[in-house]
Amino acid sequence: MLRLEKRPNPSKTWAYMAPVLAVFATMIGGGIMFAVLGKDPFEAIRTIFYDPLFSEFAWYYRPQLLVKGAPLIMIAIGLSMGFRAGIWNIGAEGQYIIGAICGAGVALAVYPAQSAFIFPTMIIFGALGGFVWAMIPAILKTRFGTNEILVSLMLVYVAEQLLASMSLGLLKNPEGFGFPGSRNLQQYASAHNAELWTGTGIHMGVMFAFIAVVFAYVLLARHQMGFHIRLTGESPKAAKFSGVNPKRLVVYCLGFSGALAGLAGMFEVSGPSGQISIDFNVGYGFTAIIVAFLGRLHPIGILLAGLLMALTYIGGEIAQSSLGLPSAAIQAFQGMLLFFLLALDMLTNFKLKLANGGSHP
Amino acid sequence: MDLSSISPTLLVASLMVAATPILLASIGELIVEKSGVLNLGVEGMMIIGAIAGFAAAVGTGSPIIGFFCAALGGAALSLVFALLTQFFLSNQVATGLALTLFGLGLSALMGQSYIGIKPPASAKLDLPVISDIPILGPVLFSHDITVYVALALVAGVWWFLKYTRGGLILRAVGESHDAAHALGYKVVKVRIMAIMFGGACAGLGGAALSLVRVPQWTEGMTAGAGWIALAIVVFASWKPARVLLGAYLFGGVAVLQLNLQAAGVSIPVEYLSMSPYLITIIVLVVMSAHRNKAALNAPAALGRAFHASR
After folding, report:
1. What residues does each domain of chain B span?
2. Distance from CA of A135 to the nearest CA of B (A)
3. Could you tell me the pTM of the whole model?
4. How far, in Å, CA of B46 to CA of B74, rounded?
5. B135 vs A: CB within 8 A
6. What percent of chain B stands above pLDDT 90?
7. Which residues 6+ apart lie within 8 Å of B37 measured at CB?
8. Window A:106-145, CB contacts with B under 8 Å
9. Which of A205, A320, B282, B302 has the fewest other C-beta atoms within 10 Å?
């Protein structure tokens, strides 16, 4: 019989190895799933992981990696702060939507004025929108002790309804021939979050994502707040003794992740997506949860995990058109990745030992 | 706007149907949480149950087999959760989230060829004379069988927790797994059974949604019902009878807002559709404001991993 023995300290090696092994295990598990669906598993895995980077059309897909990776990384960086301290914001999808509505709302309010101040104002309002939306669970938790998981999640559905109402009502394009959806911000120069260098996919949001990674790294490694977050996660009791204010931590973590999710939404609506529409949100807020865990809640890890997850999105789209793989298959594939990661994570904290039957200490 | 078109009798009758999926899922989750496990994957298990039940019912033409397969599907997915949290000792919050994400993806995958199909109608209670009594008949005696199954399940869970030895063991495991382990109870075994019961109930709830309430299959059709079920368990402060109250309350809100939409109230549809979620939040706040009362009743070992070191 195999027996588990708790390690005195988490294994460093396994902390690095678990995500890598989880990706390989998912390739195998996903391959089996694709085979069950009647697709060639080897071709499917190659299409998802190899083609976006090295195929004939990779010049088109590589920039997409940054476009899709940036919101994931930005949201996951914010979430990871809270997850470390045991504060579970799982409503990033809602904060992302509200950030987009607020950012786009500012631009549409002043349309068609052109000014260099419009885009920076949108950035501020996008972050503010996400921040305010995340403050709802934060304040309810600190004031009344309400569970932040359920409240932040419920607010996703509220935000989705608000999005529908906005794209059918207040923000609807008056020249849109009655179709739902706002004006396209890509055609509004002052509000357009354009590529900074043509053909690279790098827009302002990508830059912000990188800044967020660096900021989070410095915060965690060098700042007292980062120390408080890490301490609370590893030993809530020790944190209490060293004078951590848990309420401030809740407000801080939820606010930070909300603002980043709002920013991600703002950059998306003013750039790649272009307009507020009913189906504007595509689940980045939920996928970012996987990204945060896959990246070990560490900024650099999240950067890599975000790019990998972006790869599966793009690869999934290619597989959809070339192999007829359903789009939902990728969602299941990503979920599977999290399962394998959580399972392999055990090896970080426990040692597998061959127990010789009956000789229990 | 014509509020007189809303009939109270029909309202009560339809709220019972509307509440059934949530009621089934939350009574299952109640048992899971009573054993000290927090499974946030209710939404994922519900939607797997919804599509498994739908597919089986359409395939065989029998709703009964559909419900059976739905329970099986939900339990199967919950087994993944059980495996990860009980043997691999993974974080319960993260694993529950993974279950929901995976379930939503897998169900969309399974359900592709079922969009736009009508499932076979499931049996309704039809007692001669009694079902035809005005008001009482439609409210109490002419529902779909699932409504009664859910009610029976609530009663069964209440009785199990209160009067049986099994219920006592389950509660002991949920209050202090170390003490239960020291007494010789198999903590992991008890928890796995509880998790699977919860999965089966969530699966049934999903099928009640796709086969009775809607009845149709659409991607992501649970739309947060699983999360509302989790909220109801908190609202009920882990008491079966209050779960019933909570579920019917939310069923009432859901049905009332639909009726108001149909009656053409001047509030935009989107804001009415928000109401069940907003009310869930308000109720959670009210419950947690009386913190001592609700928290006292929460299983003490809720969400904590158990590892027998010796």
Report:
1. 3-297
2. 14
3. 0.87
4. 7
5. no
6. 21
7. B85, B92, B174, B191, B194, B195, B302, B303
8. 136, 140, 144-145
9. B282
